[in-house]
Write a structure and sequence with these properties.
The chain is mostly helical. The chain has helices spanning 2-8, 10-30, 37-60, 66-86, 95-118, 126-163, 172-195, 197-212, 215-227, 229-237, 242-261, 271-302, 306-331, 338-359, 364-374, 381-393, 397-407, 417-430, 434-450, 464-470, 545-553; strands spanning 455-456, 486-491, 500-505, 518-523, 526-532, 567-569, 572-574. The strands form 2 sheets. Strands 1-2-3-4-5 form a 5-stranded mixed sheet. Strands 6-7 form a two-stranded antiparallel ribbon.
Length: 587
């Protein structure tokens, strides 16, 4: 009985084992049982194995050799140990990075596993066999995914149905059961897909024939788009997001081309199709060049990040496909099999690149942190803050090590660039909450900026108590830009009052409710806001905020008595205003 079940339902059993393993790992993560890098490494190995080994089994089937399983398990062991060792503790907040690694490893598994399984079958044209196996795997996985989606719809509907009578299914155990059931359903869907091999081949053949003929339209769009650059190229470059869209379109172009030609193993006889395909891939060359320019410009301006490292890798793959397919259309008759050679090279470059970047040879986190450190001496202000935040939010130990290195700069003056970097790094290390770090860094930026200002008239220093009380009040407000100057205006609004202070900017646009117009006063040793400036006329340059700023510097501010006195009602003072509130604009 056991032998019959193992022989008939191996994919179902694989799904059940996968679901149980993922449920156990989820419970371990929820209880925060991972306290060391060794425990994190074991967790990462088990998670990668729980996701990717069933995927390899679904793609390769029973014809996957034992030796290949050993190599695959060894690769997962190396990658899992490295990722777990490099993750910053605690692991709970860093789980997203492990998901990224898993998703990066999934495409190479789906591309290579069918090819390794196909090698066990005798055939002279192994590439064609690899293509057929890969397409069949995609069809089987799509079918299983469709079945899983319907199963989720059933679960959601059932939950709502029982909720009508007051029975609610919630809690972590229900979630774990749903994970196990989902994995089992997907595994069973894969089993049924492999059992109906002939029907799957016929269905996917019809699907590729239907979708593949979109390729000529995609090639025509590429041609028209590049021709439009004769008057729209500057607008394209100024979007600052052209690289992603261009690479995405190249990916769509490659997808439709491979569907139509069954990965280069078939080609229509129509001459117009070959001409349109050649022009389409030639048009993709300048599109690729603009994408490369956009990525390079972002790296030069802001340095490398993990996303940009992956973008460089994706661009390399796109370049291989574009030039390979273009050469196929131009020189295909003299060099046969260029599309096949291009696809094979791309698959192995994808596998090698992903393995290198996930196993530590070319870790995007390490490369990015080193890139940011090389240019940090030239950073100040907001750019320096963004770099410190990048180190703080880095999921690996490299970011924390960079902060520790910056924080060791103890011999630099606090107001110097090195001292500012050290202070920012210490704040980032001392605060676990990223929002708290941002608040403290904002305080430091404003505190350093305010210390450079002076009080007018007189040019004396700002009272220390006022500076400390003022900083929390402006958190979230951007610092004045390079075109704007700022001062504190010391003014006495009545002869019997003490001095008040108002923060003014030369380029400000403010009303009585804005930060720029707030009036501060020291009352019993405590600095507090006691009022605000009234309306300043924006339509008249003579009384605009800039004019007020210049008048304070020149000590030419005068006080004018009110035309209407305030009234006192039961000890409450009431100010009388016009309906249109134009008193401040009267000459």
């Amino acid at each position: 009985m056991r032998q019959a079940i193992l022989k008939k339902y191996p994919f179902l059993l694989t799904g059940l084992i996968q679901g149980i393993l993922l449920a156990v790992l989820g419970e371990i993560l929820r209880r925060d049982l991972i306290q060391s890098h060794l425990q994190a490494a074991v967790f990462c190995v088990l998670f990668l194995a729980g996701v990717l080994m069933p995927l390899a089994f679904y793609c390769g089937g029973v014809s996957f050799r034992r030796r290949m399983w050993g190599v695959f398990a060894l690769a997962l062991l190396v990658i899992g140990v490295y990722q777990g060792w490099m993750l910053e503790m605690p692991l709970e907040g860093r789980f997203r990075e492990l998901l990224v690694v898993t998703m990066a490893l999934a495409p190479p598994v789906m591309l290579i596993a069918p090819g390794l399984a196909a090698r066990t079958l005798p055939s002279q044209n192994r590439y064609a066999q690899w293509v057929e196996s890969t397409l069949r795997v995609c069809a089987v996985l799509l079918g299983a995914g469709f079945a899983l989606g319907l199963f989720w719809i059933l679960l959601g509907t059932s939950s709502v149905l029982f909720d009508l009578i007051g029975i609610r299914f919630s809690g972590r155990y229900v979630f774990h059961l749903s994970v196990m059931a989902s994995c089992a359903v997907f595994g069973y869907g894969v089993a049924k897909g492999w059992q109906g091999g002939t029907r799957v081949d016929a269905w996917f053949s019809r699907l590729t024939s239907l979708i593949g003929w979109i390729f000529p339209f995609a090639a025509l769009i590429a041609i028209l788009f590049v021709l439009s650059w004769t008057w729209k190229l500057e607008a394209l470059i100024e979007t600052h997001r052209a690289a992603f869209i261009l690479l995405w379109f190249i990916a769509l172009l490659a997808f439709f081309f491979n569907l139509q030609s069954r990965c280069g193993t078939q080609e229509p006889d129509a001459r117009w199709w070959r001409l349109l395909g050649a022009l389409g891939w030639l048009a993709a060359v300048p599109m690729l060049c603009v994408a490369v320019y956009g990525i390079q410009a972002r790296i030069e301006q802001y340095g490398l990040t993990p996303d940009r490292v992956w973008a460089v890798f994706v661009t390399l793959i796109a370049a291989m496909l574009v030039f390979g397919y273009a050469a196929r259309f131009l020189f295909g008759r003299r060099v046969p099999g260029l599309a096949a050679k291009t696809n094979i090279a791309a698959v192995f470059v994808i596998a090698a690149g992903v393995l290198a970047m996930t196993s530590g040879l070319l870790d995007p986190q390490r490369i990015s942190v080193n890139s940011q450190l090389r240019g940090i001496d030239q950073l100040a202000g907001e750019k320096l803050y963004d770099t410190i935040r990048f180190f703080k939010e880095s999921s690996s130990v490299y970011g924390k090590n960079a902060l520790r290195e910056l924080a060791r700069t103890t011999d630099a003056a606090p107001d110097s660039p090195a001292g500012q970097r050290a202070q920012y790094a210490k704040l980032a290390l001392e605060n676990e909450n990223n929002w708290r770090v941002r608040e403290n860094l904002d305080k430091e930026k404003w505190r350093a900026y305010l210390k450079t200002l002076r009080v007018y008239p007189g040019g004396e220093e700002i009272p220390a108590g006022l500076l400390e009380a003022f900083v929390p009040n402006v958190l979230g407000t951007p610092l004045p830009d390079e075109k704007s100057s700022a001062i504190f205006w010391k003014v006495r609004f009545a002869p019997d009052e003490s001095d008040s202070y108002v923060f003014l900017e030369s380029e400000a646009v403010f009303t009585m409710y804005s930060t720029s117009g707030q009036v501060w006063k020291n009352r019993a040793g405590k600095w507090e806001i006691v009022g605000g400036l009234g309306t300043v006329c924006q339509h008249d340059s003579r009384v605009a905020p800039g004019a007020l700023f210049e008048a304070v510097l020149a000590d030419k501010v005068q006080f004018v008595p009110k035309k209407r006195d305030d009234i006192l009602v039961g000890g409450m003072r009431i100010t009388l205003l016009n309906n249109n509130n134009t008193d401040a604009c009267e000459r």
